[in-house]
Amino acid sequence: MVTRVVIVGGGSAGWMAAAALARFLGQRADIRLVESEEIGTVGVGEATIPQLRLFNARLGLDEDEFVRETAGTFKLGIEFVGWGAPDERYIHAFGTIGRDLGLIPFHHYWLRHRAEGGGASLWDFSACAQAARLNRFGRWEERPGRLPSGLNHAFHFDASLYAAYLRRYAEARGVRRTGGKVKDVVLRGEDGFVEAVVLEGDERIGGDLFLDCSGFRGLVIEQALETGYDDWSRWLPCDRALAVPCAAGGELTPYTRASARDAGWQWRIPLQHRTGNGHVYCSAFTSEDEAARVLLANLDGPALADPLPLRFVAGKRRKAWNRNCVALGLASGFMEPLESTSIHLVQSAISRLLQFFPASSIIAEEVDEYNRQTDAEWLSIRDFLAFHYWANGRDGEFWRACRDMAVPESLERRVALFRANGRIFRHSEELFAEVGWLQVMTGQGVTPTGYHPLADQLSPGQLAEFLGLARKHVDHVVGQLPSHADFIARHCAIPEPRAAASAGAGP
Ligand SMILES: Cc1cc2nc3c(=O)[nH]c(=O)nc-3n(C[C@H](O)[C@H](O)[C@H](O)COP(=O)(O)OP(=O)(O)OC[C@H]3O[C@@H](n4cnc5c(N)ncnc54)[C@H](O)[C@@H]3O)c2cc1C
Q: Ligand 1 center to residue 342 CA distance, Å?
């Protein structure tokens, strides 16, 4: 019987797992978490995607309380600056774009409009994109019988406050935490399953199932079980990051910004008490000193700490679940934060683990299926991220090398399909929906030569009316939203003293 679950690591991954397991398996399992304050957490990971709302809702968290507790803000998408061409920008907005009609998605009508010389932008039909442009945010009460608003949102938050918030949640539901450093992992002789972890000072914590949330080092999944790693750096070439918080300045924008730089890109994540920034770059094309200079030259306000250097290799463990160990978070692999997918991958791994939680003992077929589903999800995100680099329109050695890379065949096929007649299909385990691919492909200059023939069924007058109504609806929705800053002030502002106290915290 699997009843003793040991979570190794107390970063976002460890505490997300502890909270979810306590919520859903608290009656059945004895859950322990070990973390080392001396080692600490990676401390970054501040931008999310809308799926996190589902995770929080399943835990029963109140959204306003969650935003207040994590000094968070709201996020309507990611603005990409200088990717398609140095002076261009586009947004990958959440929510929907326009309204599907008949059998075909909305964008085919827009493609026809454009083919006939129309000037409306794809993003004119996105409520999230327009609200982001105007720095507005609000919740919309969707009602049956009324047109959906098209809005959706995620969050920016302080990752260490999120982990602390979930720790309180998990401990209140029976999770036992031990502070200490794991010095050894004991494997069972007969089958190599993990029997226990041993802490400095020789405390031994035995378990039936171990969740490796120990970060990049992969203490159990790699150092003890030698699972192996698939290196994807030929498609995701960045291997370093520098992260630095700065004083908040200007309007509180409800979106993440990802600005292309000479050998990578820079993120900007507005929180209530500070702005998170980081420069993700490829060490073969620039030095750490130069990367730091570029980062610090492009901040909203004074830096609040020295840049924190991080190193990584894009890729994933060969098996996310090996024997009786399931790796979550950075221990399971890493794809850079360009589309804010890492915390989501923790969340989806936890959901999958709950689906596959052993009925009694660990069954090979179930482990294989868990790993198959994990691989499919990771591969689809890998392709999505690689596309941003491959389809760039920038000058410079790094960006030319990205354009010249041989991308996975699955990505080539997808882009060719879109280029022909604007068709996009989503397979069941893929994270990004058609609307995500549509915006990123359009934003980075992939132009379909045709569109679905059914879009021709509307007369020119009907097409104009259909698009006009869609646009009017977006204007109507966005027109009713308050400013992002006002919304936060009214619903979920942090108390002033904490804002001041945590302003100097690391990223
Ligand atoms: C540059 C960068 C930017 C990122 N940005 C984003 C983003 O915008 N959005 C997003 O979704 N994700 C982002 N991420 C990813 C995100 O930070 C992580 O997915 C998330 O924080 C989970 O981290 P973790 O808990 O796996 O690891 P960590 O935070 O590293 O935690 C590891 C834990 O294991 C413990 N530990 C390690 N060794 C031992 C030991 N021997 N004994 C006891 N305990 C031990 C540590 O003390 C710590 O508690 C980013 C990551 C990087 C590197």
A: 9
The answer to whether the beta carbons of residues 272 and 209 sit under 8 Å apart is no
d(CA 375, CA 366): 14
* CA pair distance 302, 449, nearest whole angstrom: 47
**Is residue 501 scored above 70 in pLDDT?**
no
Position 173 confidence tier, pLDDT thresholds 50, 70, 90:
very high
Specify the 3-state DSSP secondary structure of 104: strand
Residues in the chain: 507
Q: What single string gives the DSSP state of each residue in 338-363? A: GG--HHHHHHHHHHHHHHT--SSS--
> What digits encode the pLDDT tens for the residues 107-121?
999 999 999 999 999
Q: Which two tokens stand for residue 88?
A: 């261009």
What tokens were used for 399?
A: 């960006």
Active site annotation includes 75? yes
264 lines ligand 1 (CB under 6 A): no
Nearest CA to ligand 1 atom 41: 182
- pLDDT tens, 444-455? 999 999 999 999
Ligand 1 atom closest to residue 214's alpha carbon, by position in its atom list: 34
- The H or E element spanning position 279 is strand 275-281
Sheet holding 264-270: strands in order across? Answer: 89-93, 77-81, 256-261, 264-270, 275-281, 240-246, 308-311
In the numeric block, the tokens 């306590």 are attached to 22
Q: What is the DSSP string of 23-57?
A: HHHTTT-EEEEEE-TTT-------B--THHHHHHH
Calculate how far, in angstroms, residue 155's C-alpha sits from the geometric centre of ligand 1.
Answer: 18
Nearest to 153 by CA among 442, 498, 481: 481
Please give the distance, rounded to the nearest whole angstrom, from the Cα atom of residue 401 to the centre of ligand 1: 30
The closest-lying atom of ligand 1 relative to the alpha carbon of residue 332 is 26
- The model's pLDDT over 343-352, given as tens digits with 9 standing for 90+, comes to 999 999 999 9
